[in-house]
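protien #1 (seq + structre)
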Amino acid sequence: MNLYKIAFEHYSPKDSKEGIDTYLLANTAEEVYEYMRKEYRIWDDSDDMGPYPVYDNDDNKIGTETLHEKIIRNCGELYDVDIDLSTAYYGATMRGWKLIETPPDIDFSDMIKLGIVKVGCIRKHDDFL
């Protein structure tokens, strides 16, 4: 099990806000993506305007990817350097995740009971309690 921090930033012409939405236990970034897609109702497959170009460090095009692949590679839209918010007149909220290094023997059951950590993997929530 891996622990992920799910963060957000809201940008608007008048103000901005950033913070942590939650901490999530999941096996893979794919599970984090699925949790966020359902929990926040974002990244609908109908939004996919791809394929999106992929560039190397020298700005050479090396291939293409789908929206799904792009979001997983960038760990959400929050960390996507290619996002353009200049047309977001009323603002935009971006979300992303980071893997948190934790000791392998840590017990998350108390944090799950308190609602500090959520379970976003295939295993049931009760398996951890």
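ok now protien #2
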Amino acid sequence: MIIFFLIIATIAVFLGAAALLVIGIVKKNTGLIAGGIVALLVFLAGVAYTAFTFVSKTLPAMQKVFHVRTGNEIYKSVFGAPDFECVEVVHSQDNNMPNIANGIRLHAYVCPEELKRILISGDFESDTLDPEEVINSLQTPGHQWFHPEYLGDTVIVYRTLKGFSGESQKIFSNADSNEIYCVDYAGF
């Protein structure tokens, strides 16, 4: 609201300065010309102040939007804070722009208790797949590091649908439940 008021005031000062300059030049009145120049300088100061106010109010919000989260921050946002000190996020891909990127992807080493905690918190269905079936189950295969098919001869896939908007989550685990790949789709 303040920025709107500043913009209106700045435009009014500009119009006043322009009017004073035009009238002063037409009437050849140096006092009006000087007043127009002063009003023009006030206009420029108003533009600078409005720009400064706009940037200072917008910048923190923009920094928050474009903040690059660490793997641990992403893990915490997807699964909540881990109960155990056995989580090591190896790779991560964030999704700050839902419906544009391909969801959140994680590769982590966890202890079986941590995986159990994650699975208890959601309504997961599970399947056991061989590596070839894992490749076929991926919506967007071919990432440099996202290769759940490397988890071994038997890969356990946990799937859940998190909401009516099509949000879903897949967790790929090895048979020992100590290494996971996760893809979390928001609204796909």
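The chain is about 45% helix and 20% strand.
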